[in-house]
């Protein structure tokens, strides 16, 4: 029995679209399809991803943690195919199955050979529309979710960044990525309700690399996804992200190393990567003694604490800043130095520093698009209209840096309250 | 080997209509309902498949099963039966375990089939 349809041969088609301008199609009931076909003969590999706009941002209080559970239910029993069969057939094909969740999207990805793409489009359509969410599976998934939440809670950087989002955005984007132990989602039925509310044609995209967009759209239209009702309840809507400044989330911990995340919110997600490049403390020139070209890098190298910049871009907001890590007795001083450094040197950075940041951001973006995960993310954002934005010019970045880094920041700290720098004393 | 034939015969509505009065007589004569049991409480549970099916029962069904079995065991020790208002009603004597057993049996058969198949390389 040949499980691959004959149209598989047509999928190795020529196409030179880049990720920046992918081919986009859509099915009759409104599911967006975006794809980048690699140059023919370049690689026999392809990937297909099902992206559902149902991340933690859209959880109401009754469904707190549901997105984490829905991610855990990827590739589980469906009406027509058991989880065992899905995994075993993927192994026989040499495919990789991944499920991931961000604050906005839940993504199920299959990386496989090009000939196997029609089969895996069926698999993805089945898990979206016909998952059983059985109670005995829920017990397994709940153990996995509990372990992931526990690991996240005990990872300092993850914990402060999660808390930073909560401080900055409150509900919506501020919802934690990780389900609580006391989450109200306590049965497969609840996960099914959440899944049915977000698996709606207007909130789904199927993106692929190494395939042609029109072929992929035809496959999606023939699959069970093609028979989803085009009009119906639109699912949970998130309120527009309202960023709040001057708020701090304090986590008590007597660990020897304290961490402090200082973040600045912005309305324009396209600016977060170049702004993070301005803050960046790492150098592209290894083994240089000056510890990098940015002023914060010099500061960290000379004072003996760690700085890690971060940048999160969402469809209508962005969060950019640094995580300062230092021994417990030095964290207060380190954060004050970093805050001064940002106010003096980063907000009012000169043209040269801005130029370097723009170049670095461009290289970072191009590098990210070279990875499979980066391509899929870029395609998903394009398909779902989640704000790619264009690259900033030097003048635009200068004014963005001035306005963003002089606004009131938010903070999340992991350390002892006696040794914490409080965000309203930092002089912003 | 004859399972598909058996399934067709069993699901034939004429056949079921003929068997129903005989089946009801048999159930009444066997007397498990007089001990407050359901038919699915009496299935042989000492096999891996049925153990897995029982593990998949929901909380309500598991509690009910345990209670009915304890009560029936006590009745059999004291050589008694329940008073007739407490006999299992026909609408309560539904198949709560057999579908799960079938599900687990199919999963085990699928696993064995995958483990014993031969693959042919396309090249």
Give a summary of the structure in a few sentences:
The complex is a heterodimer of chains A (428) and B (123). With 428 residues, chain A is an alpha+beta fold.
Describe the fold and architecture:
The complex is a heterodimer of chains A (428) and B (123). Chain A has 428 residues and is α+β, with helices and mostly antiparallel strands. Helices cover 38% and strands 18% of the residues of chain A. Chain A is built from 13 helices and 11 strands. Chain A has helices spanning 66-72, 83-93, 117-129, 135-153, 156-169, 188-198, 213-222, 272-279, 295-303, 331-346, 351-370, 372-384, 394-405; strands spanning 23-26, 32-36, 45-52, 96-101, 106-113, 204-209, 248-252, 257-266, 306-313, 318-327, 410-415. In chain A, strands 1-2-6-3-5-4 form a 6-stranded mixed beta sheet, with helices on both faces. In chain A, strands 7-11-8-10-9 form a 5-stranded mixed beta sheet, sandwiched between helices. In chain A, a hairpin with a 4-residue loop joins strand 4 (96-101) and strand 5 (106-113). In chain A, helix 1 packs across helix 6, helix 8 (272-279) crosses helix 11 (351-370) and helix 9 runs antiparallel to helix 10 (331-346). The longest helix of chain A is centred in the C-terminal third of the chain and has 20 residues, at 351-370. Chain B has helices at 3-11, 13-30, 48-55, 59-77, 98-115. The two termini of chain B are 35 Å apart. Chain B has 5 helices and no strands. Chain B is flat, with a radius of gyration of 19 Å. Chain A binds chain B through residues 82, 84-85, 88, 92, 134-136, and chain B through 55-56, 58, 107, 110-111, 114, 119.
């Amino acid at each position: 029995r040949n499980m691959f349809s004959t149209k598989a041969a047509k999928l190795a088609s020529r196409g030179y679209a880049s990720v920046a301008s992918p081919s986009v199609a859509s099915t009759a009931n409104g599911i967006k399809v975006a794809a980048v076909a690699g140059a023919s003969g370049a690689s026999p590999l392809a990937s297909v991803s099902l992206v559902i706009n149902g991340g933690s941002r859209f959880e109401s209080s009754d469904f707190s943690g549901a997105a984490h559970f829905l991610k855990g239910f990827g590739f589980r029993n469906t009406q027509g195919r058991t989880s065992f069969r899905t995994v075993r057939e993927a192994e026989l094909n040499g495919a990789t199955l991944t499920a991931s969740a961000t604050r906005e999207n839940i993504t199920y990805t299959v990386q496989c050979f090009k000939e196997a793409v029609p089969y895996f489009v069926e698999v993805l359509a089945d898990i979206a529309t016909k998952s059983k969410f059985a109670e005995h599976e829920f017990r397994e998934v709940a153990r996995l979710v509990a372990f992931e939440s526990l690991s996240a809670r005990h990872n300092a950087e993850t914990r402060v960044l999660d808390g930073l989002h909560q401080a900055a955005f409150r509900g919506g984007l501020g919802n934690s990525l990780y389900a609580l132990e006391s989450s109200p989602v306590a049965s497969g039925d609840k996960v099914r309700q959440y899944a049915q509310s977000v698996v709606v044609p207007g909130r789904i995209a199927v993106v692929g690399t190494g395939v042609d967009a029109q072929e992929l759209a035809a496959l999606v239209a023939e699959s069970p996804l093609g028979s989803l009702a085009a009009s119906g309840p639109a699912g949970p809507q998130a309120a527009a992200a309202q960023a709040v400044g001057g708020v701090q989330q304090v986590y008590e911990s007597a660990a020897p190393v304290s961490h402090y995340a200082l973040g600045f919110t912005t309305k324009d997600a396209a600016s977060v990567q170049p702004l993070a490049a301005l803050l960046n403390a790492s150098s592209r020139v290894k083994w240089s003694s000056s510890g990098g070209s940015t002023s914060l890098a010099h500061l960290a190298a000379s004072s003996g604490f760690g700085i890690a910049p971060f940048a999160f871009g969402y469809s209508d907001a962005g969060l950019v800043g640094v995580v300062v890590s230092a021994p417990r007795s030095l964290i207060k001083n380190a954060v004050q130095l970093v805050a001064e450094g940002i106010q003096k040197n980063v907000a009012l950075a000169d043209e040269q520093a801005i130029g370097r940041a723009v170049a670095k951001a461009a290289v970072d973006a191009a590098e990210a698009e070279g990875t499979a995960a980066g391509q899929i993310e870029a395609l998903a954002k394009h398909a779902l209209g989640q704000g790619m934005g264009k690259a900033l010019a030097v003048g635009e970045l200068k004014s963005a840096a001035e306005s963003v880094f002089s606004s009131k920041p938010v903070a999340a700290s992991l350390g002892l309250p006696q040794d914490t720098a409080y965000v309203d004393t930092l002089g912003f | 080997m004859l399972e598909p034939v058996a399934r067709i015969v069993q699901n034939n509505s004429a056949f079921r209509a003929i068997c129903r009065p005989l089946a009801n007589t048999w159930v009444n004569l066997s007397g498990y309902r007089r001990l407050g049991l359901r038919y699915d409480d009496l299935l042989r549970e000492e096999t891996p498949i049925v153990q897995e099916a029982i593990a998949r029962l929901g909380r309500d069904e598991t509690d009910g099963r345990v209670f009915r079995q304890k009560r029936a065991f006590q009745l059999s020790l004291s050589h008694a039966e329940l008073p007739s208002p407490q006999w299992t009603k026909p609408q309560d004597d539904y198949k709560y375990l057999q579908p799960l057993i079938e599900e687990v049996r199919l999963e085990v058969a699928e696993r064995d089939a995958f483990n014993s198949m031969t693959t042919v390389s396309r090249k």
